[in-house]
Amino acid sequence: MRDLRLTTAFRDATAAALLAALLALPMLGFQLTGTAQGLTLDTRFPWVGYAALTVFCGRLALSLAGQILAPLFKAKLSLPFLLAAPPGRLRNIAGWTMVVLAIGLPLTPFTDRNLLDKATLLLIYVMLGWGLNIVVGLAGLLDLGYVAFYAVGAYSYALLSQNFGLSFWLCLPFAGALAASFGILLGFPVLRLRGDYLAIVTLGFGEIVRVILLNWQDVTNGPVGISGIQRPSFFGLPFLASQPGHTTFHEFFGIPFSTEHRIYFLYYLILALALTTNIFTHRIRRLPIGRAWEALREDETACRSLGIDPTKTKLSAFALGAMFAGFAGSFFATRQGFISPESFTFIESAIILAIVVLGGMGSQIGIVLAAILLVGLPEWFRELQQYRMLAFGGAMVLIMLWRPRGLLANREPTLRLPPLAAENPGERPK
Amino acid sequence: MMTDSLLCVEHLTMRFGGLSAINDLSFHAKKNQITAIIGPNGAGKTTVFNCLTGFYKPNVGKISLTSPSGRIFLLERMEGFRIAKEARLARTFQNIRLFTGMSVLENLMVAQHNLLMRASLYSLAGLFGSSSFRRAEQRALELARYWLNKIGLLDYADQPAGSLPYGSQRRLEIARAMCTDPVLLCLDEPAAGLNPKESYDLNGLLLDIRSEFQIGILLIEHDMSVVMNISDHVVVLDHGARIAEGSPTAVQADPAVIHAYLGTAPEEPTC
Amino acid sequence: MDYFLQQLINGLTLGAIYGLIAIGYTMVYGIIGMINFAHGDIYMLGAFISMIGFLLMGVLGITFLPLALLLVLLIAMVFTALYGWTVERLAYRPLRGSVKLAPLISAIGMSIVLQNFAQVAQGARVKPLPPIIKGSIQLSSANADYPVTLSYLQIVIMLVTIALMLGFSWLITRTSLGRSQRATEQDMTMAALLGIDVDRVVSTTFVIGAALAAVAGLMVTLYYGVIDFYIGFVAGMKAFTAAVLGGIGSLPGAMLGGLLIGLIEAFWSAYFSIEYKDVAAFSILILVLLFRPTGLLGKPEVEKV
User: Which of C129, C147, C128, C131 is nearest to C139 (CA)?
Assistant: First the structure.
């Protein structure tokens, strides 16, 4: 019996290795090299062998591990503690722990500038994930062009502050409102479409916005982008060593100047913005509109038969999701001080969508975990460049195969039946 | 006679390509009555429902619904969701369409969407937790509790609706429709798939709804024990046209009905 | 008028290529209802394999053009189809019947993997290939103010596309493979119950789609003479737009949509602005969907309640 399975494993591995060799033959076995005389073809057949060998070992290890570990997996050791879909209480505790950790992070001794920068970037994705979660996770609308609203927010802050000298705090609501109006503008005609059609239209919209940013030279400065965007100030106090005619942050508080103040400030700023998004979603999910979104995701026909206007309801989700992307975009612009169309490509939309889906469609904590897995971890391997994206894509596939419903998939009802007050439940309320 | 007429369908015709599913159909449904539409398979019963509830736009015909305030709604001109929202016609579906991933209670709360939206000032007051919204939500919860109690699902309020057994899902769908506070409740084969006991209980529930809420009920049904026991008025369709109408007993004896169901026509004794 | 004619020719050539890619999208969508996001990258691999194939022909000394073309076509189709098959097997099959978005995310991941695989394996630089099929027919009279040319390459592209379309229609409508495919498309569970090997049908769909994409890749290599690892994304997006425009799930629709997108692009670039040609294609898609939500040749969906 045991031998039989061993032979099967070997057979599987050999087949996989053969397939890998065939696949590797054209793409790895040959190499196109550009020379002065034009393109030449080099061979590197050993690579084909390495690829086949790797796949052989990998496949063999996988099946053997599967056979050995399968009984263990059945014995309830299957899932890591956190991922075992904790009930509401536990999830609340986990959530609060994360908030406390996030607030405390800059105060810990091992935190340096680099870590805070990475954490800030991670939080941008968390915020975008939470924003898109309203659209995809709650309302079930597949939006592949979310990055367009992020771009609208970023450019509207950059342009407003450059052309009219408006401060970040003045621009923020404006950028959100503008992104939301773009959401409505796009959503109004297309939200009647079926799910997959919506996907392609939003994807197209994302590309349209990017192409316009690239080509509308007079306003957006084209592919060069906008630089020298006003950096954030602490409610009017700039983070500068000195500024004529202005009290700077360190002067006001009487502390020595440090470039790190701004980093800290930015970190707390995005943390606050992200938490606002979270609290907003948390609350709105419990309101009639939030329940209507989820109901629409489940069954639009039934919703119509209950008198819910599907277009308006979807539109509100779309616009609100866009608004948060607009806020995040403004923050991105002020943090970078420089934006160009390159930051708003489809891959960004794909990453954000992946975070939402891997998180577990509607689970706020799941989104944080997915963001850490997808954005945080690869950040540490930045030096590996192209291999990083290869691993990123591979991780996306593997996590999906591992947990198709996302990391934290079970849903908490938005409200529970409160215990009975004095009255008799048989009585008809009027 | 017209005073208590709630729903009035006149000359309704619905064609799909060359096939006419409903042909010049007229009938009434009255307030405080249970009207049953019966007919062999393919007679066009569900199509009638879909025309009433705005899923199809009829080619010809007038469908008017008189609200308690006396206002008359012409349903064939209204969008589907407005029929439910403004004319207050609620329906259930032949293959149950609950929000299966949401809890039983949430299903009943979604049905009170429009009321709660107004109370939450379209979410604005709700976001800040205003007390008037809290009170409205409390009332909505009590209504839900009332219905849960009535359909015997009080203990399952927080379970996902999809996890309920079939019969309970049917009852929940009726309760959900009732939570929209309708003037006319349209039920598409409510007894389909129920066992005799459940079917008997359903009769009780429907009679109860009629007497307590004084609304009209329109139902499509194959289960004759339901139709004959509780209907006040029966409309028989065949091939999209009305072939008989009247009290259950009168319809039962109608030769045209017997012909449509059994295919033995008095004038063709052969075969 | 001459200028118009030239754009028409260019647009049709481009459209034929888009159409071939679009078939892959529409077939997969029709049969398992998913957007195969990696299909554009399969096409990109097809282009790379074709280019390697051409250089290999040079190395092997096969200079008789028709034979070389045929061999490269075969090589590209076989290896690209293998990639298509593997992607389905690895990333999509385990997720069949799962949550609707899971295969989409997996496909996006696969697209990223393939793109970066090509970049790692073959480098990020643009790969140029000298023209292989040279020569053209002058369509306008010698003294016309705008010379209209129809290159031999354009003729080859259109002829190959037409031939593939005919063969393909035959496959779908006349063979038992086509019948099982259509049956699976209508109702996968029922098809399985009637003894159709659904897994094999789905695999075949991916193989056919990838092989057609490989042909498109080969043509693009010949037509533009330059490829890089990024071409799959843009072309894939346009081809998918074409599939939706024609009515997703409809094979003639995919071809029609492809031609339309090609024409729109050619004319827009010629008469308005080349920068905004992508915007034009998408705007027209949005307009069409507003008036015909199921695309040009898509079957209107009757809602069953």
Answer: C147
Return the CATH number at B151: 3.40.50.300
- Give the model's pLDDT for residue A4: 56
Residues 6+ apart with CB under 8 A from A268: A106
ipTM of model: 0.89
Question: Which residues are CB-neighbours of C85 under 8 A, at least 6 positions away?
Answer: C203, C206, C207, C210
Question: Does the distance separating the beta carbons of C112 and A27 come in below 8 Å?
Answer: no
Q: Is the Cβ pair A292, B139 closer than 8 Å? A: no
Which of B84, B97, B109 shows the shortest C-beta gap to A291? B109
A185/A126 same-domain check: yes
Q: Which residues of A touch C110 (CB under 8 A)?
A: 393, 397
The pLDDT of residue C251 is above 90 = no
Domain that residue A15 falls in: 1-33+41-62
Burial class (CB within 10 angstroms; exposed 0-12, middle 13-18, buried 19+) of C137: exposed
CA neighbor of B107 nearest in space, from B139, B136, B148: B148
| Residue of chain B whose alpha carbon sits nearest to that of A285 | B127
How far away is chain A from the Cα of C11, in angstroms, using its nearest Cα? Answer: 20
User: B-chain residues within 8 Å CB-CB of C100?
Assistant: none
Return the domain boundaries, chain C. 2-140+151-291
- Average confidence score pLDDT of chain B: 88
Closest residue of A to B174, CA-based?
Answer: A306
| Average pLDDT rounded to a whole number, residues B244-252 | 89
CB contact under 8 A, A22 and C82: yes
Domain span at B120 = 94-181
Decide: B251 and B234 in contact? Cβ < 8 Å. yes
